[in-house]
């Protein structure tokens, strides 16, 4: 038997695991198995971060694992691309044929082959371990995995030196918590539990979000700024700290770089000026500054839970830089419960080179392959060969991702995937919008069926996931598929024989005790209480870099810049409404959209509008509306539910195209324009117009 038994009948046993999903909480799971079938998935009560609680989505994980539409055998295309018509084929046939196709393309130029993957599972093993080894040895194009967090990562890197911040549990000791660009209740539930603890102990919670989310409703104050205006707000808060004497001069002198320059720029941002940019009353900004000042005077900890929602705009990285300066300005890092957390993933000593073996590139025919940005896949699939671009993309291997639904400007993405001369392989659990365009669909295991090991970007524990049940049908882990392809292509390096448990052990090597993981499922990293109380930031200077010498060397603004959106909305604009498309609570990106109970909870694709914007267009609650711009159009049901502010519309994501009224989703509207730093997409920098339409067209697909 695999682990301990929790007082159940002898024919039942429990297995410790980890939630695989792209969520900061990385919960510890306990799966109960009876006679080879998983009968319960629960949160591990022994794991402090999980506290025995799972979100609604993963509480229903068994509906996903045993879903009647799980892909359980390899499939070969039997109709036009996109039609989703397939015929069953054996693994042998599928793998032999795929290997043959890849070999032929690689003989001309392996860079014509592109892996496309993201965080369908966050596991280090079923993510980029065997797959990365395979593509490195092949010399395939490399993928720049920018779609979620690259702008924020760059902002943190140039300011704090990496994806590091406060230990999340210390928010319980904060007196003032800014929940900034984050809907904790919807997408970071276990942080919300900690924020509640702080609130019960007297902390004040302030939410900074254009949308009146369920989180904003439950905070003491809500600043509903316009999308893409966070840097202006951050500067106005610094302005107030300077003029009211709330700067921690000692901390600033000792542990920061570029204060004089930052101070001069902040003084250009009085609350009135920021208020005009952010579209909020100056009094709201002044009140928040006073909250901060009160804590500074009482030497009470101020903490910022920054999240990725505010960096999906043109100035996203600079906005993160501006916000990340604040805790150093007021000396918040001195205190346990003070500072900032955007991502904690930089704390982990992951042995990526051991897992991914970039050295294998040297053994490939193309030791320095080009890099393709996953966020411009729409354009890149349609690019012909050229000296600047290199070879046209001829083969695409997709795993852990659903680009046809999630990548920006999906009209263009669909045109790319529909290319008849493109050879596409999709490793999937379900027939997603992307799988519909595949030449081969290979059935993938779920988290209950394979080994994996996890870091977290919202806490600082390592989690191990053991398989609880045998793979369903002919489903196989991603690692198995790449091992088999490696063998067929004659890659005989010993690393291609590593099994999944070995890969789990390699992920952290000696840095994490594997026996502890086997026994309790998780192991906390040893971290100091207030990591930057005495400076020691992982930047080149060891200081919090207000002005970044590295940016100056690149010829860029060394200070955080206030940048307008690519697509400014507003009454005078051709497309006057700013559309944001943050996650729906019952979906995880495009995962779970096909689980009926969760889809029912979300209803149908909806566009939240402010009553003023709706009535100006003759739109009433529940009407069908068409959202459009020059890139495309998408039909949704208008919702006047009090969540949208004037000038902003909200289309919660990410629906599968085939479950919507017109076979599209919000990404039909979004653009492939990139952020200031990090080459990330700008999903929330998207101007649209909205009109009432009489009825939904017939459901497609
Ligand atoms: N239930 C659920 N949970 C999830 C996900 C999911 O799809 N569903 N997705 C997961 C993933 S991949 C990620 S990256 C995280 C994402 O979670 P977060 O990092 O929290 O980011 P978002 O959910 O994109 O946006 C959070 C909030 O930012 C707001 N926002 C939009 N534009 C701006 C802006 O310009 N400024 C400010 N201040 N706020 C803005 C949105 O209205 C939204 O309420 O959540 C993860 N958790
Ligand atoms: N408009 C708009 N678009 C967005 C966003 C937004 O806020 N608004 N958010 C963006 C963000 S933050 C992100 S992170 C991306 C997310 O984009 P993706 O990482 O593509 O996430 P998902 O849509 O959840 O698709 C993951 C797929 O992986 C599959 N999968 C899960 N586990 C496994 C496995 O073990 N093996 C294999 N082979 N497959 C597996 C799932 O079935 C699922 O179909 O979307 C981005 N797109
Ligand atoms: S999706 Fe997030 S909150 Fe839900 S179980 Fe997974 S890690 Fe926990
Ligand atoms: Mo994400």
UniProtKB/TrEMBL annotation:
Pfam families: Molybdop_Fe4S4, Molybdopterin, Molydop_binding. PROSITE patterns: 4FE4S_MOW_BIS_MGD (PS51669), MOLYBDOPTERIN_PROK_2 (PS00490). Residues 12-69 form the 4Fe-4S Mo/W bis-MGD-type domain. SUPFAM superfamilies: ADC-like (SSF50692), Formate dehydrogenase/DMSO reductase, domains 1-3 (SSF53706). CDD domains: MopB_3 (cd02766), MopB_CT_3 (cd02786). InterPro entries: Asp_de-COase-like_dom_sf, MoPterin_dinucl-bd_dom, Mopterin_OxRdtase, Mopterin_OxRdtase_4Fe-4S_dom, Mopterin_OxRdtase_prok_CS, Prok_Mopterin_Oxidored, YoaE_C. Its EC number is 1.8.5.3. It is an enzyme of class 1 (oxidoreductase). SMART domains: Molybdop_Fe4S4. Its cofactor is Mo-bis(molybdopterin guanine dinucleotide). Keywords: Iron, Iron-sulfur, Metal-binding, Molybdenum, Oxidoreductase. GO terms for molecular function: iron-sulfur cluster binding; metal ion binding; molybdopterin cofactor binding; oxidoreductase activity. Transmembrane segments: none annotated. Belongs to the prokaryotic molybdopterin-containing oxidoreductase family. This is Dimethyl sulfoxide reductase DmsA. The lineage of its organism: Bacteria, Pseudomonadati, Pseudomonadota, Betaproteobacteria, Burkholderiales. The gene is dmsA.
């Amino acid at each position: 038997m695999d682990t301990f038994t929790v007082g159940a009948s002898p024919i039942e046993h429990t297995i410790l695991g980890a939630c695989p999903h792209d969520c900061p909480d990385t919960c510890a799971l306990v799966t109960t198995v009876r006679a080879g079938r998983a009968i319960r998935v629960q949160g591990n009560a022994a794991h402090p971060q999980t506290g025995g609680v799972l979100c609604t989505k993963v509480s229903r994980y068994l509906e996903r694992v045993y879903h009647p539409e799980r892909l359980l055998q390899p499939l070969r295309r039997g109709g036009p691309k996109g039609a989703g018509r397939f015929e069953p084929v054996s693994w042998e046939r599928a793998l032999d044929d795929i290997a043959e196709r890849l070999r032929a393309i690689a003989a001309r130029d392996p860079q014509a082959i592109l892996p496309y993957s993201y965080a369908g599972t966050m596991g280090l093993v079923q993510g980029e371990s065997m797959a990365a080894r395979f593509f490195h040895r092949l010399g395939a194009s490399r993928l720049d995995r920018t779609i979620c967090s690259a702008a924020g990562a760059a902002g943190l890197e140039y300011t704090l030196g990496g994806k590091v911040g406060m230990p999340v549990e210390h928010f319980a000791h904060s007196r003032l918590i800014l929940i900034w660009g984050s809907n904790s209740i919807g997408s970071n539930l276990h942080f919300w539990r900690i924020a509640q603890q702080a609130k019960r102990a007297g902390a004040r919670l302030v939410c900074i979000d254009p949308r009146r989310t369920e989180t904003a409703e439950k905070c003491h104050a809500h600043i509903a700024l316009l999308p893409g205006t966070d840097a202006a707000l951050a500067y106005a808060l610094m302005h107030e700290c300077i003029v009211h004497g709330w700067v921690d001069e000692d901390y600033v002198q000792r542990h920061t770089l570029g204060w004089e320059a930052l101070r001069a720029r902040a003084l250009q941002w009085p609350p009135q000026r920021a208020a005009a940019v952010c579209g909020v009353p100056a009094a709201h900004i002044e009140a928040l500054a006073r909250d901060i000042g009160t804590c500074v005077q009482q030497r009470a900890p101020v903490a910022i839970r920054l999240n990725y929602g505010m960096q999906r705009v043109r100035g996203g990285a600079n906005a993160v830089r501006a916000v990340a300066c604040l805790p150093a300005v007021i000396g918040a890092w001195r205190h346990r419960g003070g500072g900032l957390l955007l991502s904690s993933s930089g704390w982990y000593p992951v042995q990526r080179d051991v897992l991914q073996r970039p050295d294998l590139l040297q053994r490939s025919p193309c030791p320095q392959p080009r890099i393709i940005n996953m966020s411009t896949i729409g354009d890149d699939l349609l690019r012909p060969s050229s000296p600047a671009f290199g070879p046209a993309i001829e083969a695409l291997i997709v795993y852990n991702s659903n680009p046809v639904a999630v990548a920006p400007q999906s009209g263009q993405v669909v045109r790319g995937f529909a290319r008849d001369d493109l050879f596409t392989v999709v490793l999937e659990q379900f027939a997603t919008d992307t799988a519909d365009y595949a030449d081969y669909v290979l059935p993938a295991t779920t988290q209950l069926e394979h080994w994996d090991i996890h870091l977290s970007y919202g806490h600082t524990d390592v989690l191990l996931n053991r398989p609880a049940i045998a793979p369903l049908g002919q489903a196989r882990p991603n690692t198995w598929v790449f091992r088999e392809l490696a063998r067929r292509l004659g890659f005989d390096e010993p690393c291609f024989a590593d099994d999944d448990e070995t890969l789990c052990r390699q992920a952290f090597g000696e840095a994490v005790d594997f026996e502890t993981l086997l026994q309790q499922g998780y192991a906390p990293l040893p971290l100091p209480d207030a990591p930057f109380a005495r400076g020691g930031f992982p930047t080149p200077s060891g200081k919090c870099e207000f002005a970044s010498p590295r940016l100056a060397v690149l010829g860029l603004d060394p200070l955080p810049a206030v940048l307008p959106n690519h697509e400014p909305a507003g009454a005078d604009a051709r497309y006057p409404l700013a559309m944001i498309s943050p996650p729906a609570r019952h979906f995880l990106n495009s995962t779970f959209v096909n689980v009926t109970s969760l889809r029912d909870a979300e209803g149908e694709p909806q566009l939240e509008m402010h009553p003023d914007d709706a009535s100006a267009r003759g739109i009433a609650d529940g009407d069908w509306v068409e959202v459009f711009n020059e890139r495309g159009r998408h039909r949704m049901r208008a919702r006047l539910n009090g969540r949208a502010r004037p000038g902003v519309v909200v289309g919660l994501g990410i629906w599968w195209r085939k479950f919507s009224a017109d076979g599209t989703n919000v990404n039909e509207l979004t653009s492939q324009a990139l952020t200031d730093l990090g080459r990330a997409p700008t999903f929330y920098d998207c101007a649209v117009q909205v009109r009432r339409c009489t009825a939904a067209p017939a459901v497609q697909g």
